Amino acid sequence: MAASTSNSEKPAPISGRKLRAAVIGGGPAGSSAAEALAAGGVETFLFERAPSGAKPCGGAIPLCMLDEFQIPSHLIDRRVSRMRIFSPSNLEVDFGKTLLPHEFIAMLRREVLDSFLRSRAESSGATLITSLVTDLEIPESNNSPYVIHYIAGDRSGRKEKIAVDVVVGADGANSRVAKAIGAGDYAYAIAFQERIKLPDEKMKYYEDLAEMYVGNDVSPDFYAWVFPKCDHVAVGTGTVRAKRDIKSYQRAIRERAGPKISGGKVIKVEAHPIPEHPRAVRVQGRVALVGDAAGYVTKCSGEGIYFAAKSGRMCGEGIVRASEGGTRMIGEGDLRREYLKEWDGKYVATFKVLDLLQSVFYGSNAAREALVELCDDEYVQRMSFESYLYKKIAEGNRWKDAKMLFDTVGSLIRCKIVGRKREVLNY
Which helix (H) or strand (E) holds 244? Predict the structure, then answer.
């Protein structure tokens, strides 16, 4: 394993060339990292196995991402301004009552977004290599290179290799890069999604509407969704605890959505692992993990696209700073200081809060009933949207915050009592 460079050491200058970086994985995390690296003067190679592929994903991104990452409006399939949440007993709550006239949740197809971000990375100077990365050789000294072994994506299937100074692992929950550096195992969820093309009159119902369903029938520890796309809806669910039963949960969400999606034609079926928590090891030597490879998917909401792109950009910009525009070698200490410390300082609290919310509200149907009941409160809605749409800590009112806490406790107590009574009656 490569030795690390301490924070006090000046990185060695590179003679006759620029710092070379390999980014493994061409999703939002990898493309954003590659763009930042190439734009900052680092010689960058972006590896992507299947540029035409698409990860099963709800495809929702917050409003702030459109501006921050300059996402063109023509990539947006739907502007969701109405959201409905359904409890286990099918209590329905309109969760979009407090959205302002200019606010919406953007829905995109991952294959469209990913292709755009990869193209932009190439425009910034990154070299896209369509290939399957098979191995990462770890150097034994600070000055030795990492060697990427890969199989070319063309029909030749030839085996190639390339030596680089820095590696960014953006290759998803089953990251080969993470395994190569001994980042350890972690819990992951399985997401299952069907894309269903609906008749025009039924598609009109979902024109600006997204639906979320909670209950043991659709997932024992997550939620199910019906999200609108350009000419179809994405219908899916996910679970950590009961992966073998994912298809039965998918049948349940289709039954819950009922006549609203009946008569539709399934045009694509997708499944993919989703990380459940950040990895304990995200930097080792001159290797950094970002996006799903690092475990940056929030519990409770399951959001990952924004955090993937943001972590990739922060990592790329950190490498550029540490290498002084690609003119100096970097070490582990540089990655920890310029990337990991910055990321943790900005987002660790968010992940911990959402972890807590999931443990409180997704553990039983009674708790889910309480969650949906609370979501009917307009103050709860506004605070939720402020945090989600703009990725900042919402400034609340202390008295309303106290009332929200009181209402939360009351809802949990009341719904647990109601839940017990319902179980007795069912028995």
Answer: none
